[in-house]
Automatic annotation (TrEMBL):
<dbReference type="GO" id="GO:0016747">
    <property type="term" value="F:acyltransferase activity, transferring groups other than amino-acyl groups"/>
</dbReference>
<protein>
    <recommendedName>
        <fullName>N-acetyltransferase domain-containing protein</fullName>
    </recommendedName>
</protein>
<dbReference type="Pfam" id="PF00583">
    <property type="entry name" value="Acetyltransf_1"/>
</dbReference>
<feature type="domain" description="N-acetyltransferase">
    <location>
        <begin position="5"/>
        <end position="185"/>
    </location>
</feature>
<dbReference type="InterPro" id="IPR016181">
    <property type="entry name" value="Acyl_CoA_acyltransferase"/>
</dbReference>
<dbReference type="InterPro" id="IPR050276">
    <property type="entry name" value="MshD_Acetyltransferase"/>
</dbReference>
<dbReference type="InterPro" id="IPR000182">
    <property type="entry name" value="GNAT_dom"/>
</dbReference>
């Protein structure tokens, strides 16, 4: 990463910019790129809960979770972010998960205009290092939209494989998601 972009852990002062970035990247990647036509009420409900400043305040304040951002130093805007933590926090419905013992990647999004800069790869490497440090010897979990082939390919490159499926609620709408698992790195 060059000097224009700073990669760092997020703090409470970042919650408003994180909320804006979360809404923007979710809309770009799911609604626009994958052409998912959510009912407006359900999408608004989801974004106002899962992308709210309150959600980010709780997440950043939780010692079992971590949030990272990539910030453009020229204008102070965030261009990418990731969220990881204990697999027990946002219950992924799979019988093999060991609640507080396993780690999970909850989000990794890069703004459309900043994709192909390597930010996703750099975020993933840091997230995996953090998860392996905090959940050593345990598997890492994530969920991904079943139609997001680009993300699935990205996660497969990092050793994740599909181990299940579930319907993720967006208001009254249900996204069909895949559950992916990366076996523990015991080295």
């Amino acid at each position: 990463m060059n000097n224009q972009f700073v990669f760092r852990r997020a703090d409470i002062s970042d919650i408003d910019k994180l909320s804006i970035l979360c809404q923007k990247t979710y809309h770009e990647s799911v609604v626009e790129d994958l052409c998912v036509c959510y009912p407006e009420k359900g999408l608004n409900y989801y974004l106002h809960s899962a992308a709210s400043p309150e959600w980010f305040t709780n997440t950043i304040s939780d010692p079992k979770r971590a949030v990272w951002v990539v910030e453009d130093q020229t204008n102070g805007e965030f261009v990418a972010y990731a969220v990881a933590g204990s697999s027990s926090i946002d219950a992924i419905p799979h019988p093999d998960i060991c609640s507080d013992k396993d780690g999970a990647l909850y989000r990794l999004y890069v703004r459309r205009d900043r994709q192909s800069y390597g930010f996703g790869k750099q975020l993933m490497n840091v997230v995996l290092s953090w998860l392996e440090e905090h959940y050593h010897g345990q598997p890492i979990w994530l969920t991904v939209f079943s139609e997001n082939l680009k993300a699935q390919k990205f996660y497969t490159h990092y050793g994740f494989s599909k181990v299940g499926e579930w319907d993720f609620p967006i208001g009254d709408w249900k996204d069909h998601d895949f559950i992916m698992k990366r076996e523990a790195n015991t080295s």
